[in-house]
Write a structure and sequence with these properties.
mainly alpha; lipid biosynthesis; 291 residues; two-stranded antiparallel ribbon
């Protein structure tokens, strides 16, 4: 994003870099050196922040649960769910196929419900319980991906980053045809195609040069050239997640979900594309391992 005043632009860049450095200083040591319990606990804190942000966005809108359930209750519910999940996860009492059911249900929501909700401008009417379910699924997927391997989790995250970055730069350079003008005027079809190129390049790098087990290599080993299908499906889901949050913010006329991350907006602004992508990636992983 450009700024007319160069001083404002420079200040915003400094804030973004400082926030990114602070997040990296917290998350990277825990990701690479911490135990699974520490990783799950710290990422739960970010999910609690995201649930608070989402409740703030839907609270002003006229539907039943937002009148009854204030944001502190929403965060408490998410904390209780997270605590019980942590206990079940590390006590080995999680019901069989719970994660598979969770990934299937959430992926079905993003396929069946998300696009109609955006099309008919009803995103802001989404029940808070559904929101908590979506966040829980993404959090569970983060834990599961890290349990497979650090490289596996990073490969999924880099897929989303590559898709978003290439879409942004290609869209700015040659974007002409709007993808969803009423939701996010800046997104273009050309940008999405550029994102697809970015995903394929990222896949090639991970397959050829990254020594860790990762999502791209597993897909390639199991499917060969058909591995492009799950990669591009995840690209599509990342776009849906991005547009979904944009539609929600547009409905309540706000620019960012919060200011928890100076220069970056809120937690939701940073993880919106990951919310549908992570659970679907783990669902695909399950089926790939059956081949």
């Amino acid at each position: 994003m450009g700024y007319a005043d160069p001083v404002i632009g420079e200040t915003m860049l400094i804030r973004r870099l400082f926030t990114a450095a602070a997040l990296a200083a917290v998350l990277l040591p825990i990701l690479f050196l911490g135990s699974a319990w520490w990783w799950a606990s710290v990422t739960l804190i970010f999910l609690l922040a995201a649930s608070w942000e989402w409740q703030r966005l839907i609270k002003p809108m006229p539907f039943q649960l937002s009148r009854v359930m204030t944001w502190p209750r929403g965060v408490v519910v998410m904390a209780v769910i997270g605590g019980l999940t942590l206990y079940g996860l590390f006590s080995n009492i999680t019901p069989a196929y719970f994660d598979l059911f969770l990934y299937c249900a959430v992926s079905l929501f993003w396929i069946v419900a998300a696009i109609p909700l955006m099309r008919y401008q009803q995103v802001h009417r989404l029940s808070l319980w559904v929101v908590l379910f979506l966040l829980l699924a993404a959090w569970w997927a983060v834990i599961a991906a890290r349990a497979i391997g650090i490289g596996y989790l990073l490969s999924i995250i880099f897929l989303v980053i590559a898709a978003d970055s290439f879409a942004y730069f290609v869209g700015r350079a040659i974007g002409r045809h709007k993808l969803a003008p009423t939701i996010s005027p800046g997104k273009t079809i050309e940008g999405v195609l550029g994102g697809a190129v970015g995903v394929l390049l990222t896949a090639a790098i991970f397959i050829q040069y990254v020594p860790w087990d990762n999502f791209f290599r597993l897909s390639w080993q199991k499917l060969g050239y058909f591995a492009c299908l799950p990669w591009l499906t995840l690209l599509f889901f990342s776009v849906v997640g991005d547009l979904f949050e944009s539609a929600l913010k547009r409905a309540v006329n706000v620019k960012d979900s919060s200011q928890l991350l100076p220069g970056h907006g809120g937690v939701l602004d940073r993880i919106d594309a990951l919310l549908p992508t992570l659970p679907l990636a783990m669902l695909i992983t399950y089926f790939l391992n059956q081949l």
